[in-house]
Amino acid sequence: MLLFACSASSPAQAPPADSTTPRDIVSLRAELAADIQQIEASAAATENDAASYQALLLGHLRFLDSVYAQQQIVAERAKEIGQEREQISEQSARFELLGSESLQDYTFADLEDERDSLDDAEFQLSLTDSELKSTRSLLESVTEQYTANERQRRLLQEKVDRTSDPTGRAAVQRELRVIELRGRIAEELITLRKAELSVKELERQTLADKQQALASRVTLAATQVVFQKTDLDRLLNSIDEEQTRLNRLVVQLQQSLQQLETQLTTVPAPWDRATTDRVRSIRRLLHRGISDANDSLATQLLLKRHAWKMRYRVLNNLATVDEMRQMRGETAKFYERVRDAQNVTQTRSEEMRLDADVARRVQTDEQLDELQMLQSRLISEAFRESGRRHRLLRRADRLFARLQTDLTAKLGAEPDTTTWGAILPVLQSWWFYELVAVDDKPITVGKLCLGFCMVIGGVFISKQVSRAVGHRMLPKLGVHQGASLAAQTIAFYILVMLFGFFTLEFLNIPITVLTFFGGAAAIAVGFGSQ
After folding, report:
1. Which of 382, 348, 376, 381 lies closest to 363 in space, CA to CA?
2. Which of 25, 78, 470, 492 has a CA 20 to 30 Å removed from the CA of 151?
3. Domains of the chain
4. Which of 395, 416, 410, 417 is CA-nearest to residue 307?
């Protein structure tokens, strides 16, 4: 058996170096299953201490079996990548042989599909680079774990050789057996990580070849393919099919909600806490599904339809310059809406990922009631629909980006991309920055600057008007010079107060702000005098 062979094997000095050597993993898993059955059969007749030891061995053996299963998956993935590489090589050879003749039946819709595939390949390439980095880190970690386990195994082996007491020797041998099994697991994990690393590198090379082949076809097809009315009809028909599917989904969710309410009438009250939480979760899932489907119908699909029509007019020179300028403004707004929807969808997908994993495990349990099965089914369906919606939004994002590129090629760069266009938003944010709120009215930087300018202007006007009154008007009326100067001073202060109150009223600043700033000024003067 595998377990006992592991115990009796000679000490390994280094982790396995070759992960490409073919092995009969099916036979290894069969031997492992026999060991597990043997331990399970003997576990029922053992005492408490022995039972805990048997449970520890079972846990390690089951984990080792899962590692073997992952190795099988990686091996199958390597075969799939090999077949994919052969297909890419055949397509590339055919394209190099025929050249433009291979694109005779190409349509604009086919070109857009190729562009989407090219973008997907670029995205997958960057994702694969991240996975390669993570796999290398995991390989280093499990190698360090293997080295530490080997040190501990050698120490225990020496302890077994030095122990003469049969009882103590048996206890140490049990511990050594567990350590050897952990070493076996570490070896297989190293083999798994190396296999994953080689598969990821092969997958990256395949994606790079695919990206290069797609880029060549797209570059050549872009110079030959024309956006025709039949292409537009085909693209709009695909949007209609998606709308039909979403309408059907909304009806199904509404029917599920009605069935839920009908079933709840048969559940005896009062409900326990678990049932209440489960019902609340099911209702939330159904309402969110209906809301997301309606949002996709009302916004994203309609925006895509409008974008395809605009792009058809732009590429076929059917739109005027003014219309294209208007299209550019609309496209920028639509692009932002799609980006916001992408962020929301991505956040929800990450939140639902763990729930979906739990739901898949729960669905295999035969002791669940109807509410639990309904909840797990809705979670799985919502996660799949979230992935579909994310792909739809990613394609819409690319569509609007390409439309912006087409409009820029026709109209040139936007004036907002100049230095002033970059500075203006910063100035606006500072202008409307709120310093303090008095009587629930904001006092912003812009109000203070504008108020300061208006007060300075009011002081200047008050000075000119009061001087005209004191030096010209009153002396002509025969008023004494001293009285004229007094009247000039009084008029100046009255006008300054008038302009000050007018400024506060015009800027919607409460008069109580004078109390606030007056108190602050008094405190400042007090500290300054000290």
Report:
1. 376
2. 25
3. 1-225 (no CATH), 227-413 (no CATH), 430-529 (1.10.287)
4. 395
